[in-house]
Amino acid sequence: MNVLHSTSHSRHVLKLISLFRSSPKFRHLKRNVTSSIENSGGNVFSNSTASISIKAARDGVDTAVVEDEGPKLRKFLVFEGHRAPFGATVRDGGVNFAIFSANAVSATLCLISLSDLHENIVTELIFLDPLTNKTGDVWHVHLKGDFKDMLYGFKFDGSFSPEEGHYYDPSQIVLDPYAKAVISKEDFGVLGPDDNCWPQMACMIPTSDDKFDWEGDSVLKYPQRDLIIYEMHVRGFTQHESSRAEFPGTYLGVVEKLDHLKELGINCIELMPCHEFNELEYYSYNSVLGDYKVNFWGYSTVNYFSPMTRYSSAGTRNCGRDAINEFKLLVREAHKRGIEVLMDVVFNHTAEGNEKGLTLSFKGVDNSVYYMLAPKGEFYNYSGCGNTFNCNHPVVRQFILDCLRYWVTEMHVDGFRFDLASIMTRSSSLWDAANVFGSPVKGDLLTTGTPLSSPPLIEMMSNDPILRHVKLIAEAWDAGGLYQVGTYPHWHIWSEWNGKYRDIVRQFIKGTDGFSGTFAECLCGSPDLYQEGGRKPWNSINFVCAHDGFTLADLVTYNEKHNLANGEDNNDGENHNNSWNCGQEGELASISVKKLRKRQMRNFFLCLMVSQGVPMIYMGDEYGHTKGGNNNTYCHDNYVTFHTQPLIRSSFESHR
After folding, report:
1. In this structure, is the dihedral angle defined by the CA atoms of residues 426, 428, 433 and 437, taken in order, positive or negative?
2. What protein family is recorded (predicted)?
């Protein structure tokens, strides 16, 4: 196994920092004319005081003139538009908007200036005519005009009948699932106006000027057998003051420390969720630590195409375009150092929750399509987080493929780790063979959520001309009890987080009797799991520790979890950790116990590195980071989860 892939690269990164320093000035324009439609209740968003007058159509074009009190006159040419591609796309001298919604009876495109977003005002409304702006189940419109500092969203009207799976509310502005950037709050962990944890969000409108210099970069395409993976959290990696990062807690902060990872021998980083999510989702006072709980890990996606803007030093500047470029910069600079970039993606559920949850995007666009529902509209909960993404529905699986292709072709990532990937093998709600395969199958008695031996989504991904050439890694279980380690549908493409390796190695090294035989199989690449299906040792991602569970230092320091800091009376987190404290519980221990702990940590590392398969190291385990025995640190944006780096030199410093 190759430890390093040396790649010659330019070290002139400092010159790029200037791209992310200056903030533009925005001028807030108050509008003083009336709107032609009434906005009722719901979101605190109100319609703009701008009026839109539509002149008689000539040559298939309407003219929407919006008058401001200020000196500038906004004018949009409104065309019928095109049904593809989905999302907002620059074409024909303007922007085309297209979105799927099969069950909505009306759709309105909402244009929102960046300044009006902060004032909860809809700047302009474009009403879509079902006769001219709809093809099949796709609503579309093409606009030409001035989109500077302009964002967008949609309003849909239709039935509000949860028992039928519909949650249409014309007062709600919802996000386009295909939006390439989502704008809301500026800073991580900071409340919105009026202490709102969920301020209105809106989508970036692309422009023809959206460019990035890749300097000839492309995916590295290392053989998987040569990988050494480092699982890391973008914010947690450099947020601690010991990192001495110029841009702590950001994509640029990671760039500053890439040379450290290369020196360790890492040639692949696996980023914990970097899709747009709301860190304030769990926001509540934690009386134990005297701070506030947040969604630190990010396993609660709001939008799958948008990078997390608050992981960017640029924040929402330039309507999120700078955040996109900063993520691209991270990927490009990692590739220059011979380091691949994998993304941890969460296509098993979203942040919208169940019937009591929020309406942010998918639920308001077409809930019965995007989520797995019971006959009376209840949400299936195979994720343990309130809802289950309806992955094998034709529309949803196409959405997932489009999203993954975007991150490979446009963002240059090298592959994906799929959280709770077993959900992607379950049958969709309203399942029938004709719905999936195009024709009925005799004796087809599959019900919603039934595990499929040949899931359409996994088959499509495995045979996709783009995706089949990147790394596809499954966390092969879910919260509904489906456990597929060794049996995940793979088409000789997929790899798996080998949870059995973790459990067996922990048991053997701590001295539990009866594990020598299975431990030997782990060293040989787990042939008991992968040989029969025709896979190779490198289809096993071997790990001892990961983000959920004990760190390596805590694995040899604590017999029991110590999760009181989570504010849940130590009831959360895994109870069966297969850990051993080496004779004394906690960090205050005798010298002999501490020596034994260090020896055990070396034993774990040695085992990981000599085992056949692909080793994965968790951030901080290389120096013995402790979380104080907390094995479920999802809610901590503090020293518990921050990587401490007293000896790590900044990559930027090496360029000075």
Report:
1. negative
2. Belongs to the glycosyl hydrolase 13 family.
Q: Where are the beta strands (DSSP E) in 368-478?
A: 415-418, 471-474
How are beta strands 138-144 and 134-135 bridged, if at all? antiparallel
Question: Please, are residues 415 and 340 in contact by the beta-carbon 8 Å criterion?
Answer: yes
Examine the residue annotation and report whether 419 is marked as an active-site residue of this protein. yes
Distance from first CA to last CA of the chain, Å, rounded? 34
The residue assigned the tokens 């640190």 is 633
Handedness of CA 617, 619, 622, 627 (dihedral sign): negative
How far is the C-alpha of 50 from the C-alpha of 644, rounded, in Å?
Answer: 52
pLDDT score at 46: 46
Tell me phi and psi for residue 573, to 5 degrees.
85, 165
What pLDDT was estimated at residue 257?
Answer: 96
pLDDT for 49 equals 39
Q: Of residues 62, 366, 475, 621, which has the active-site annotation?
A: 475
Question: In sequence order, what are the beta bridge partners of 87?
Answer: 98
Q: What pLDDT does 135 receive?
A: 98
Looking from the CA of 634 toward its CB, the CA atoms found within 13 Å total 17
Q: What is the chain's Cα-based Rg?
A: 26
113 and 68 Cβ atoms separated by less than 8 Å: no
Q: Which two tokens stand for residue 493?
A: 């493409």
Query: pTM of the full predicted structure?
Result: 0.88
Q: Does the annotation count 116 as an active-site position? A: no
Whole-number Å distance between alpha carbons of 573 and 98: 42
What phi and psi, each to the nearest 5 degrees, are found at residue 557?
Answer: -120, -25
Give the C-alpha separation, 332 to 74, whole Å: 38
CA angle in degrees (0–180, nearest 5) for 478-480-485: 40
Residues 6+ apart with CB under 8 A from 113: 29, 123, 149, 150, 151
DSSP sequence for 238-258: H-SGGG--SSTTSHHHHHHTH
DSSP 3-state of 75: strand
CA distance to 107, 159, 357, 489, 492, per residue, from 472 (Å): 37, 39, 31, 12, 11
- DSSP secondary structure, 544-608, as one string: S--SSS--HHHHTT-SS---GGGTSTT-SS-S------TTSSSS---HHHHHHHHHHHHHHHHHH
Catalytic residue selected from 419, 478, 554, 621: 419
Segment 590-629, tens digit of pLDDT: 999 999 999 999 999 999 999 999 999 999 999 999 999 9
Cα pseudo-dihedral 431, 436, 440, 442, rounded to 10: -70
The pair of three-digit structure tokens given for residue 572, joined into one six-digit string = 């959360």
Helix H or strand E segment including 230: strand 229-232
Query: For position 441, what pLDDT does the model report?
Result: 55
Local structure of residue 566 (DSSP, 8 states): G
Rounded distance between C-alpha atoms, residue 87 and residue 432, angstroms: 29
- 373/463 Cα distance (integer angstroms): 28
> Could you say which residues of the chain have pLDDT below 50?
1-60, 63-73, 431-433, 648-656
User: From the centroid of its chain, how far is CA 562?
Assistant: 28
Q: What is the pLDDT of residues 203-217, one digit of tens each?
A: 999 999 889 999 999
Query: What 3-state DSSP class applies to 261?
Result: helix
What is the three-class DSSP state of 614? strand
Helix (H) / strand (E) element for 507: namely: helix 499-510
541 and 490 in contact (C-beta within 8 Å)?
no
| List of E strands, 158-217 | 160-161, 166-167, 182-183, 202-204
